[in-house]
Amino acid sequence: MSVVGVIDFETTGLSPAMGDRATEIAIVLMENGRWWRATSR
Questions:
Q1: CA of 29: how far to CAs of 8, 11, 18, 34, in Å?
Q2: Tell me, what's the pLDDT at 17?
Q3: Of 16, 31, 33, 35, which one is least surrounded by beta carbons within 10 A?
Q4: So what's the pLDDT on residue 1?
Q5: Burial (Cβ within 10 Å: 0-12, 13-18, ≥19) of residue 34
Q6: What are the φ/ψ torsions at residue 12 (nearest 5 degrees)?
Q7: Structural domain for 30, as ranges
Q8: How many domains does the chain have?
């Protein structure tokens, strides 16, 4: 049994120097191909 973490990182763009920022981060933990815990901020 292996556990894998999948991260989704949403931003307003690709350049922090131009004011772009992170808007949302989500993490899903998967075990044997099925997700069993998810969180987002």
A1: 12, 21, 33, 8
A2: 96
A3: 33
A4: 66
A5: exposed
A6: -90, -5
A7: 3-40
A8: 1
pLDDT in tens, 1-41: 688 888 999 999 999 999 999 999 988 888 888 887 777 77
**One-letter amino acid of 8:** D
CB crowding 2-26: b at 16 or more within 10 Å, else e = eeeeeeeeeeeeeeeeeeeeeeeee
The first and second tokens of residue 38, run together, are 């998810």
Q: What angle do CA 5, 1, 34 make, to 5 degrees?
A: 55
pLDDT in the model for residue 2: 85
Three-point CA angle 14, 27, 38, nearest 5°: 145
**What is the structure's pLDDT at 35?**
80
